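As described in the Methods, two query proteins were run sequentially through the folding procedure within a single session, without resetting any intermediate state between them. The first query and its resulting structure tokens are shown here.
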Amino acid sequence: MSATMQLDIVSAEGEIFSGKVDRFFAQAANGEVGILPHHTQFITTLKPGEVRVLTGDEVNYFYVSGGVLEIQPDVATILADTAIRAKDLDEVAAQEAMARAQEAMDNAKTDLDVTRAQNALAEAAAQIAMLGRLRDQLSKQGLMH
């Protein structure tokens, strides 16, 4: 039996995932990190993007809007403002959010307005990119026409 670790993904709305996993990948501030059981303890911020969770042959995908990843000896916790199961992402809503963010960027009058618009744009772009990667994977597996 291979080693596993506890992973908890929690958002402001509540817990979205909790379970034993073989490994997972997340978008840390300085690039993607891969976490295996017994990983060295650390804490890092997360960028908006994909969290890939592997358990046996099963892969689960989540979108997080950013947040914090904390690694303890046998437990990893992702705390995010927003966390969504990939199957619940809405591409039309993400495209609309991107258009609104771009409009906000174009109309920004202060540095704070620019920062808010940049953050909204990064979140929408990360959701759209994740949906594209998932669509490509499903297509390669013959699960999408």
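Immediately afterward, the second query was submitted; its sequence and tokens are:
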Amino acid sequence: MEAFDLVAIGGGTGGYTTAIHATQLGLTAALIEREKVGGVCLHKGCIPTKLLLETAQNLSLIRKSRTFGITAENISLDYGALASRREQVVGTLHKSLRSVIQKHKVEIIEGDARLLSPTEVEVNGRRLKAKSIVLATGSQPKALPGLEPDGDRVLTSDHCLEMTEVPSSLAVIGAGSVGLEFASFYLDVGAEVTLIEALPRLLPLEDAALGKGIEKLLAARGATVLTAAAVRPEATRTFDNVVELTVEREGKEQTVRAEKVLIATGRDGLTEGLGLENTNVKVERGSVLVDGSYRTGEPSIFAIGDVIGGLQLAHVAAAEGYLAAEAAAGKDIEPLDYNRVPRVAYTRPHVAAVGLTEEQARERGESVKTQRFSFRNNAMALIHDEPEGFVKLVYDADSGDVLGVHALGYQAGELIAEAALARFLNASAWEMGMNVHPHPSLSEVMGEAAQLSAGISIYW
């Protein structure tokens, strides 16, 4: 039986980060992946979807080229060429990733893994013994009972990436980041889009100002937005080229018709078939339970990433994987502070946040103050003809410490890293405001919001 210090099950961002860092700590490591290393993020999530969204952003820019004194005619989207470029970019990154993993002497094993015991794994009839096992199996799109995806009319995000043409109309059920990103993309490439969210606002887990702001902007681009709306799956009908949904809203029923329906109601951790019954690993509501060191109920088994729930983001899985490798190597670790992890929806424009929402801060009893600064007052935003949006700081009225930062606007996903660093350093609004920002730049939106919060702005 082959022996390793650490075996990571799942070759996505969390799994390969764990395995690579384990070798950096002097451990031997193997990485088991049933499809391709890179996982959902590289092949079915972060990378291909952001490539689509960047294409849509460029398409929008070209369409308004006259604003910049440029004449462009006969503008169209070649969806086949877009799909080819997507495969090319993903393929390049996949090849590079395999090279990096192998450079660190991590053995890549392809196949389905099954736990035989807390220290034994079987894959393709091959038995491995490990001092530590890390579950990094990721997640899959959550089903909506009674409205099962068929890959034709009712879709998951995976199906959307496989489509070779743009539907004439799309109904998106669920207005988290996945639902909004696909809604934004399809609006830009010419589809009629209806967004259906069961809760009272879009992006219901984010600050209310962000949900309301992106709803206004998507509606202005032509989206129909239905919030506090419940789909009745049992009343769904499919005929000709149309899916007909029955939606309950404000005590009344209404009908939504679309060529395709995207189910974007979240993701479930992948735990089936892992052999967890041969261990003391506990699963609750689809997520593996772990402690602050990402150790499960079985001391030799850790779990990270989407399979443990929480913030299901690739960069979160990577951070957790790094820490799990440290713990497996016998090091004392500090648990990841999820209130300093940036969150981004790559819509047009971006929605980005880090830290507490205003509502969360008030619920915790903080002495809360807030301050906004508009992109309309930023020179670079006007140069780009992207004046919509704002940065909102949530901070402690007494200490000035930054509790959360929420941004809606052009390239907000790039700007939020500064706020994440501020949270990491426990910075105050004054410290963020005194940080010198280049002029002209979009980053000044962040600086001006902080200066207003600290009362040190010379302009306002």
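Residues 154-263 form a domain with the FAD/NAD(P)-binding domain fold (CATH 3.50.50.60). We note this only descriptively and draw no conclusion about the first query from it.
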